[in-house]
Amino acid sequence: MWQRIAALIVKEFLAVWKDKRSRTVIVAPPLIQLLVFGYAATFDVTHVATAIYNEDSGLLSRELVARFQGSPNIDVVARLDRDGQIAEMIDPKRASLVIHIGQTFSRDMLAGRPATVQAIVDGRESNTALIILSYVNQIVSEFNREWSVASGRPPPPAVLVTRSWFNPNLESRWFIVPGIVALLTLVVTTVVTALTVAREREIGTFEQLLVTPFTPLEILIGKSMPALMIGLGEATLIVVVAVLWFRIPLLGSIPLLYAGLFLYILAVIGVGLMLSSLARTQQQAILGAFLFVVPAVILSGFATPIANMPPFIQDITLVNPMRYFLFIVRGIFLEDLPAPIVYAHLWPMAAIAVVTLAGAGWLFRHRAA
Amino acid sequence: MTLAAPKEPEGAGDDPAPPPSRGGSLRRLFGLVRKESLQIVRDPSSISIAFVLPVALLLLFGYGVSLDAKHVPLALVIENPTSETASFAVSLANSPYFAPVMMPDRQRATEAMLAGDIEGIVVLRSDFARRLWSPEGSAIQVIVDGTDANTARIISGYVDGAWQKWLAHYASDLGQDLSPPVVVEQRVWFNAEVRSRNFLVPGLIAIIMTLIGTLLTAMVVAREWERGTMEALLVTPVRIGEILLGKLIPYFALGMGGMAISTGMAVWLFGVPFRGSLAALIVVSSLFMLTALGMGLLISTVARNQFVAGQVAIIVAFLPAFILSGFIFDIASMPPVVQLLTHVIPARYFVSALQTLFLAGTVRPIVLFNGAALFAMAVIFLALTRRKTSKSLE
After folding, report:
1. Do A143 and B60 touch (CB under 8 A)?
2. Considering the entire predicted model, what is its pTM?
3. Per-residue model confidence as pLDDT tens digits over A12-23
């Protein structure tokens, strides 16, 4: 029996590898995506184009302006001298931030009255707007603190001491790149498996396979192995690039990472094989793969957190294998996730794998070509 | 569904299309348009790509993609409860951004954070109340889960806001003035509540229209090449320009139908304001539609095979539109090389024009610049397609 399965696995490998199209799909796009995602996909905001509108001639306002100029994230691109220019800067996106200091700024501060600084932000990109505002608040708080000390005002009774664990400099690349391990493994595994049965159905060899002495279980194993190997290989490559090229820390246990990867790939293979058995042509299989991959990625927390979604959509994400693996891979990379927490995310993937693989095995026989 | 199928593509005639059709060829063109329209109406797959796909994707993305953190689960560890710590806890609980959970100690909170149950920890040490009166002041420890750097940054900003509010309250209760010397007055233009949906949905429309425009023509025309019906069409007396125009017009109408549905959903379902002029929206979307269709035609002409055409359409149109268009990731923060690359992505111009038209209004320089860029790209793609098609005739 084992010999038979081995022969079947070799045959499936050759089928994937000999086909030039599927070879291209496996090798080229993932590498391009890894590089483009790794460099372009960032939530960090740098080089904020800023215009300064300072109506105050005092020393203190110039001191504050100097702090904005000194900030590494802010590029001062213009000085304004009348109100109308604010819209002229923001509307055509020549600046994302305008700092407006009123005429009485220095006078108010010296008199001990609260002085105001207006920060006008372009809200068309809401996330960038929030981050820009946090930069402004940081600069002004620092200014306040030093002024309070210098002018002998009482310090605030309590201060915040904020620290960020696992990613002290809050680099979004540390968040995105481990996610790419999950993303590309999903894409490659789905495409490879989605094609296998559909291709044979299109050529007509699947019926031949069904009348051989192979049991559905054996066919299932034979069809799964190439995808499993390719998925594991591709994921390993991405992990290596993430660590050596993008310098993402890998703190956790590698065996646990691979345990997660193994179950994740199995769950995805099950979905891919189900799609493949349902499709009549390779065309339909690819379309089906696309219709599975896009929602799976969006509803996994890859780009935006699951916690921000409405409750009923959060419930849908519970059947998404990528959601669990994404948690594991990010946790193992950055947090050295303890084993019990990893286990808690392993079993849902195992359950999904069992259901989808069993479904695929059933569909092999019961879906009439 | 068939009801929604456009039979007379009106308004499409006054759009810039490359080959001018002369005299009697108008009848031939009409015949071709009729043939393509019938083909669309009878084939459910292109109707569903144009109308079902945008609705499904807009629902999925509109609800699934959000950057607004609300009711963030936060652990609050109070080592020694006093009236001061209680007042701070209340100010956290009153913030709409947090759902604080009391935890007995840091150990427990750390475990919850690793398990992903909470996203941050606020610790008030046992000496919190006592040190409030000491010269160096008391320290409130805030720990955020930096794994998701973006959320972490947003949360720490919210904690900062809650802390400042508490300080002001606390001080005024004691009859002191603790207001900071300089106060920042925030004005977020165009999107006062900073709703991420207002920013994401217009961008999404651009992504979806890229997908529809390109995938629609790439797949459908590649199928004609595959089946050999394209060759059959080429040997008839119709000119190549007419064949291309005959394909463009019905799919253009189909794509604009999808655009109308998406815009309607954005405004009425997702509540995104539309502040620009409808005419500007129609002009810019028409130009973009022509670019996307041109790209799809070019892909299908070069690939001539549905599988390859589908793959190429996803890799050169969908993925760059998703990552490099400024739809979710800020272009100005990308490395300079990648920023240069974004200039050849048509979706970049459409995203920028849509975000402005929806949220800011018809800002002339932005609409003109992006419209001109799209017009140039449409001309390039359509001219290239025409050249590629005529070459293959001999």
Report:
1. no
2. 0.83
3. 888 877 777 667
